[in-house]
Amino acid sequence: MPLDLRTMAAMLAASALLMSVALCTGIRARSAGGFMKWNLGLGLLAVGWSLVALRGLLPDRAAVAAGDALLLAGFCLQLAAVAEFGQQPAPRALWMLPGPLLFAVLLLLHSQAALTTAASLACGAALAGTATAARRLAGGGAPRHMLALACDAATIILLARAAAASFPLQPLPALFAASALDQAALVGLFITSFAASIAFLLLHSERSEAGLRRLAAFDPLTEIFNRLAFLGLAESQLSRARRSGEPCALLMLDLDHFRHVNDRFGRAAGDRVLRELAAALRGAVRAGDLVGRYGEEEFCVLLPNTALRAALEVAERLRATVAAQRLGALARAVTVSIGVAPCEVQLPGSLHAAITRAELALYRAKKGGRDRVAGPLVTRTQPVPSAAAA
Fold first, then answer.
1. Residue 251: what are its φ and ψ, rounded to 5°?
2. Mean pLDDT for all residues in the chain
3. Does the pLDDT at position 168 exceed 80?
4. Of the four, 94, 291, 336, 360, which is 20 to 30 A from 15 by CA?
5. CA distance 383 to 335
6. What would the pLDDT profile of 71-104 be if each residue is shown by its tens digit?
7. In 3D, which of 333, 315, 316, 332 has the Cα closest to residue 324?
8. Where are the domains of the chain?
9. Residue 380 pLDDT > 70, yes or no?
10. What is the DSSP letter of 28?
């Protein structure tokens, strides 16, 4: 085996180990997202490439079969890692059986052409599967395409190697020798393997950044916009309404006697009530409406392109929906009081002025007996007997 080819295989082994270290450094969430499988796959690839580098020095044909089998096992683990990253866990048979099966098959083959063809086709199939799994990932952008293209390129290289072995244009060298195509294939696999690992690292980095952005914008308990994010999005919505001249309205909701829920049933029950209320609000409003958690048990809903009369009707529907759902599966119905205010979008500070007016309306609804909707001009009352008794 030429020294340069042995050196290239050793470089592949070293690069696999270096990428493993890079992944450990760059990925913090190591228990999810396929990290463990991809990293273990890199370890198997490193051992497999090491055996490839030792071809000609290890006289046993089993060493050749073991090297190719380890490479296949490493590629299958990377396929399983991408599937797990996409939240589609791969069956264990996908990454546990192909390597041993290929090892057994290669031990039965006696010609170099058959050995090369079988190993190349098996590894190419695993890489093609990884490319397909990468394309099915939701989001990912450039790293997803980079991973798919790297695996596609490696697949093409291995298919070309298999075709050249099956239909050689010149006599094949001895078992432990290497052709020019083998050398070119190793160079291509070195590039594509490095690119695939970089792409997988970037996928994790993008997901981490998206998670941080979500934590900055969403309330972790209710999974709706937190106060800061709601105010920012509401300002943007009112700016659009100012240009279009469309009316907007704001609802301020507050859970009635929520402190009693926490005191009597515990904070866990109170948290469940808050989560279910947020889910009820999201399900009862339009896709373009903004729902946010404004305080501990206070919620805001911005209704674009909605006049005051329609906003009062929406508020009444929300009030009735909450009273009928028995949030938290408590024995006593949990109710909400709602204050409604129009947003005078043409005036400066319209959002904060609307919030102030909605809070005043909410105060009147609370003072009037709770489980009520109050607007700036009218108060509509439909008390629920059990809530009034509360």
1. -110, 135
2. 85
3. no
4. 94
5. 10
6. 999 999 999 999 999 888 788 888 889 999 999 9
7. 333
8. 3-216, 227-389
9. no
10. S
Residue matched to tokens 């709601």:
230
The residue whose two tokens read 């009081």 is 337
Q: What element of type H or E holds 336?
A: strand 336-343
Q: Which phi and psi (to 5°) does residue 255 adopt?
A: -70, 135
Q: Which helix (H) or strand (E) holds 379?
A: strand 379-381
Q: Which pLDDT tens digit goes with each residue over 218-261?
A: 998 999 999 999 999 999 999 999 999 999 999 999 999 898 88
Give the percent of the chain with pLDDT over 90. 49
- And the tokens for 360? 């005043």
Half-sphere exposure in the Cβ direction for 157 (13 Å, CA): 21
Tokens of 206: 């993008």
Phi, psi at residue 309, to the nearest 5°? -60, -45
Q: Which two tokens stand for residue 179?
A: 């052709």
Residue type, position 132, single letter: T
CATH placement of domain 227-389: 3.30.70.270
Whether 41 and 77 have beta carbons less than 8 Å apart is answered as yes
Q: Please report, for residues 19, 42, 147, 268, 281, the alpha-carbon distance to residue 23 in angstroms, rounded to integers and kept in the order given.
A: 6, 10, 15, 38, 41
**Which helix (H) or strand (E) is 296 found in, with range?**
none
Quickly tell me which residue has 């919620």 as its tokens.
Answer: 299
**Residue 214 parent element (H or E):** helix 180-217
Query: Nearest-CA neighbor of 109 among 63, 66, 49, 61?
Result: 61
Distance separating alpha carbons of residues 20 and 38, to the nearest angstrom? 8
- Phi first, then psi, for residue 316 (nearest 5°) are -65, -40
What's the pLDDT tens digit per position in 130-167? 999 999 987 668 899 999 999 999 999 999 988 888 87
Bridge-based pairing state of the strands 248-255 and 298-304? antiparallel
pLDDT digits (tens, 9 = 90+) for 22-77: 777 766 555 567 888 998 999 999 998 888 777 666 656 788 889 899 999 999 99
Structure tokens at 11: 């470089």
Q: First-to-last CA distance in the chain?
A: 87
